[in-house]
Specification:
The protein contains 10 helices and 5 strands. The chain is globular and about 60 Å long.
């Protein structure tokens, strides 16, 4: 039976929080946060554990409140110019089990009024790891093409993120995948509508999208030396 997780109240709360981003308001509306965001997000994470295991047992759907798949609503304002205390989005991250010890790709869901999307891959790996990925692309061009140019992927995702201005050291300017080698981020993403996110079939849709992106995830796992 399909289950609805996020609802209109999820988006209403985030809109209200954007206007009232202060501790007094949040504390007075904590029950709304729990009911419209925290609890449905944790239910989504828990229910996604079995489908995720069928994609790969090396990624984790953890409903724990500390260090789990749900990002905290509290912003780290220590070094930020923006001192508002709360995020105006909800983020869910299904990490590789080795993510604490190594750079590894992950699946991500972002819920925010007017800005919902899901992504997968690696955001801004350190230079050494980025070069590992670039060399893996260079040495496995057919596999990279299948993972990122195949209809199964491109029907849903597009590659995005920042890129170097010049070709990375050690690669020719006429390389057939030069634009991919110049990437700083190795990610696929797709926008989602509020209607999709609040649909009772959203868990199924998210699972399907993760499956469609599994070729890129496997390629990146191989590139950085972690199991898919």
């Amino acid at each position: 039976m399909a289950n609805r997780y996020f609802t209109k109240s999820t988006f209403d709360f985030l809109k209200d929080l954007e206007v009232n981003n202060n501790r007094e308001w949040f504390n007075a509306n904590k029950a709304r946060y729990d009911a419209s965001i925290k609890e449905p997000a944790l239910d989504f994470i828990e229910d996604f554990a079995d489908p995720l295991a069928k994609i790969s047992r090396n990624f984790v759907a953890d409903p724990s409140l500390q260090g789990g798949s749900l990002f905290r609503i509290y912003r780290d304002t220590r070094f930020a110019k923006d001192k508002t205390p709360y995020k105006t989005n909800t983020g869910l991250h299904f990490r590789h089990f080795m993510a604490k010890d190594a750079h590894a790709p992950g699946f991500y869901l972002h819920v925010q009024p007017g800005e919902c999307f899901m992504g997968l891959g690696l955001w801004r790996p350190e230079p050494k790891v980025a070069y590992q990925i670039r060399h893996h692309i260079d040495e496995n061009q057919a596999e990279w093409k299948k993972a990122t140019r195949g209809k199964r992927f491109t029907d849903i995702f597009s590659l995005g993120g920042d890129s170097l201005v010049r070709p990375p050291k050690g690669f020719d300017e006429d390389h057939p995948y030069l634009e991919d080698l110049k990437r700083k981020d190795f990610m696929g993403s797709t926008r989602l509508t509020q209607r999709e996110v609040t649909s009772p079939d959203f868990n199924k849709q998210f699972n399907d999208y993760c499956r469609r992106g599994s070729g890129l995830m496997k390629f990146l796992c191989d590139a950085v030396g972690v199991p898919f």
